[in-house]
Amino acid sequence: MKESEFKSFFKPYSQNVDKANSLLFWKLSDELILEIIRRNIPLALTSKHTTILDAGGGTGRWICDLSKVYKSGFILYDLSEDMLKKARGNISKAGIGNRVRIIQGDLTDMSKIKSNSVDHIISIYSPISFIAKKKRAIKEMYRILRRNGKLIVMGHGYFNAINSKINNYLAPASELKSLEKTSMVKWGKQVPKLNTFSKESMEGMLRRAGFEILATYGVPIFVQPGPEDFDSENVKVSRVSAALSRHDFFEQVFEVEMRYNAMPTLANRGMNILTIGRKKKEASS
């Protein structure tokens, strides 16, 4: 992604991204992700001496939420100054500044982080989809993880992108052909082209970097957002978000999603693909 394109996207995005889960579709998605993190990084594997790095952590909202679950320290690693400016305010407001180290940098070159120094890494809502040299970023994450450390990485779903471009966008044949060939999608004028992943391509990328694959989830696999759920002002409300305001419906959809979202035959339905990898051995020098 060009630097000008990067800045023009993330500057306005940083102002509204923290309000997204005011829409119930995104709140459901957040709850699914949080549950997956809890199941794969159990409290027993953490302590105040543990470090969790959020790769492409943006405004720090996931660190703020996870700080209520884990006693560990955190590293927020992101390239966008606009996102980090927002993060500093969020972290200060949450009163966790003494537990968070903020680093501005590119995920393809994390030389500011020592090898084998981080216990676990999360990368939520698809920073990997924005990175041209995505394989290099994954190798860097492997390098900085300690042995048996876990990586929870999320990218845009390939098959969901094809489905959406056909059914929601009625995309021209040339766009569909390009998406199928390159696994890259463009959702709008202000959004750069993004990498998409299948269960198989995400797992293959992690496996080639040295990770042992523990699980892959589709997030979500059944519930689909409406166009209103992508309102940049987070004001419009889709039919599904309105329905999810009913507590019983929200809870039932959550239960159904969690019951099936890691099934190998269903994960590729996911709007996003989320894979859990574990570092099997020390990174070579």
Give the proportion of residues in helices. 25-40%
Mean pLDDT: 92
Instruction: Please give the number of β-strands.
Output: 9
Distance between the termini: 29 Å
What's the topology here?
Elements: H1 3-16, H2 24-40, E1 51-55, H3 61-66, E2 73-78, H4 81-94, E3 100-104, E4 118-123, H5 134-144, E5 145-157, H6 158-167, H7 173-182, E6 184-185, E7 194-197, H8 199-209, E8 211-219, H9 239-243, H10 247-260, E9 272-279
Structure description:
- Helix content is 39%, strand content 20%.
- With 285 residues, the protein is of the alpha/beta class.
- It has one domain (3-158, 194-279): Vaccinia Virus protein VP39 (Rossmann fold, 3-Layer(aba) Sandwich).
- Strands 1, 2, 3, 4, 5, 6, 7, 8 and 9 form a nine-stranded mixed β-sheet that branches.
Identify the notable features of this structure and list them briefly.
285 residues; alpha/beta; Rossmann fold; 10 helices; single chain; 20% strand
How would you concisely characterize the structure shown here?
This protein is of the alpha/beta class and 285 residues long.
